Amino acid sequence: MTEHNVFPTTPTFMDKVNAETPGDPRLEMCIQCGTCGGSCPSGPDMEHTPRALFQMIKAGMKDMVLSSNTPWYCVSCYYCTVRCPQEVHITELMYTLKRMAIQEGLYRESTASRAPDFSGTFIDYVENYGRSFELGLATRYHLSHNPLNMVSMASMGMGMFIKGRMDLIPTRIKSLKQLKAILAKAKQIGGAA
Amino acid sequence: MKYNYYPGCSLERNAYAYHQSTLAIAKPLGIEFEEIEDWNCCGATEYTSINLLASYALITRNLALAAKNVDIHKLVAPCSACFLNLAKVNHNLVESPELAEKVNTALGAGGLHYTPGSQEIYHLLEILFNEVGLDTIQSKVTKPLIGLRIAPYYGCMVVRPGYSRKFDNPEHPTSLDKMMSALGANVVDFPLKANCCGGHMTQISPPVAYEMLRRLLHNAAEYQTDIIVTLCPMCQLNLDAYQDNVNQYFKTKYKIPILYFTQLIGLAFGIPAEKLGIGKELVNARPALAKIGVEVPEPQPVKGQKREKPAKEALPMPTMPEEK
């Protein structure tokens, strides 16, 4: 007699996605109604609507899910989250998928492969100064990814500078050592997540 | 009324006008803000995309520093993204003691500790709407904004998803509408008032953001809006600084100034425009404000650019013909 494992003990891809999300994200409750995709302002530019992506997660299509541009095109507007009839924490799940895509290195396959670098450059300033730094972020990120875009961004940047809305040097918090110790500890505890 | 105050990185520089106008209206409204000592960036929408626990520790450091002020239990953030991050983490730490323990272990490395939920997180709009109240605001109006057509723009994160409290409708909010009406302004119908400004998409994929901005500007223009009023530095930055890019991209000619709601409250209270940071916006608000008789001083030349005149006793220098 063949044994059918009705309750698999190894966690599925969906279990992992749920586990990496704070609180109870309720991904398994999705009924494929499509309210999320219909509410999404950047939905038309996504390779998969959130609805499609969630079914792909349920089907265990890990590589395809984590190389999709969908999470990176999420603008965190939370329309889907408040409209979802099943109260799935969709925006939070998108953050989880971004983190997993970075861990697995699969974001490089995505058409939004520049996005993690933007986040990375942003947090680099936060980790080293305690505050964000717009000029450094804009120049470092655009120079490495989109030098042509610098031209159109430069005139805007100049306008901001003339109006006194852009700093030339970053601000540093006083207790930077303390912050660095906290972040180092958090990374040690949290591991990859 | 005393509150802990978390300005956030934007209010230090690019949205300094928001900070300035917030502090300017606080006094007449009887609000005292105590800025959190040595606060750090909230990580915006970027840190959680990379490292969950580190981003929670980053945000909770601010909560722990605020909680050091033992007499004040309410923390106010004027920036929508900061507000959401603080409220979300506070909420999730209460919901998940396991996560709270991990975060506190990390904070321990810096000698800090935070009891989840010990601070209540508010956005500035909620404080002005619910705690100060429209009656008090209206009683301070000396120069009503009569004749000014205002589109109230809420954006996303103040009304959605409502981690701390749902103080307004997440899809059809009205608090800012009512507040602007209380100032005497003509509030236009603005169906896209809670839609997204594109957030960080201006950096990651500009055309996606430009389309979102175009929709907002188009919608506001349809109602002959003089000024779009925002309550978020990101919304202000995207609509104001990228309005030119949107016009170039779509061959449009929008010229709608974007001001913070605190700046308009200040104007209605009779506070001079320059004390509210008006004039820092890239799409000039001067023509719109002239409609209600508000004069905005011409921008001052940036210091240090002017050449110093040589001292009279200095040796004569050769001069260029046009200088004569």
Structure description:
The complex is a heterodimer of chains A (193) and B (324). The model of chain A has no long low-confidence stretch (mean pLDDT 88). In chain A, helix 8 (115-129) packs antiparallel against helix 9 (134-145). Chain A is mainly alpha-helical and 193 residues long. Chain A has helices at residues 13-19, 35-39, 50-58, 62-66, 70-73, 79-83, 90-103, 115-129, 134-145, 149-162, 176-190. Chain A folds into 2 domains: 13-109, Fumarate Reductase Iron-sulfur Protein, Chain B, domain 2 (Orthogonal Bundle), CATH 1.10.1060.10; 115-190, no CATH class. In chain A, 54% of the residues lie in helices and 0% in strands. Chain B is built from 14 helices and 8 strands. Chain B has helices at 9-12, 16-26, 52-67, 80-95, 97-108, 124-132, 134-139, 175-182, 201-204, 206-222, 233-241, 243-250, 261-268, 286-290, and strands at 2-5, 32-35, 74-77, 120-123, 149-152, 186-187, 227-230, 258-260. Chain B starts with a strand and ends in a 34-residue tail after the last helix. The relative contact order of chain B is 0.13. The model of chain B has no long low-confidence stretch (mean pLDDT 93). The chains are: A mainly alpha (193), B alpha/beta (324). The interface between A and B is large, with 66 and 70 residues.
Summarize the structure.
Chain A is mainly alpha-helical. In chain A, 54% of the residues lie in helices and 0% in strands. Chain A is built from 11 helices and no strands.
Please report the number of helical segments of chain B. 14
CATH topology of the largest domain in chain A: Fumarate Reductase Iron-sulfur Protein, Chain B, domain 2
Straight-line N-to-C gap of chain B: 61 Å
- Rg over alpha carbons of chain A: 20 Å
**CATH architectural category of the largest domain in chain A:** Orthogonal Bundle
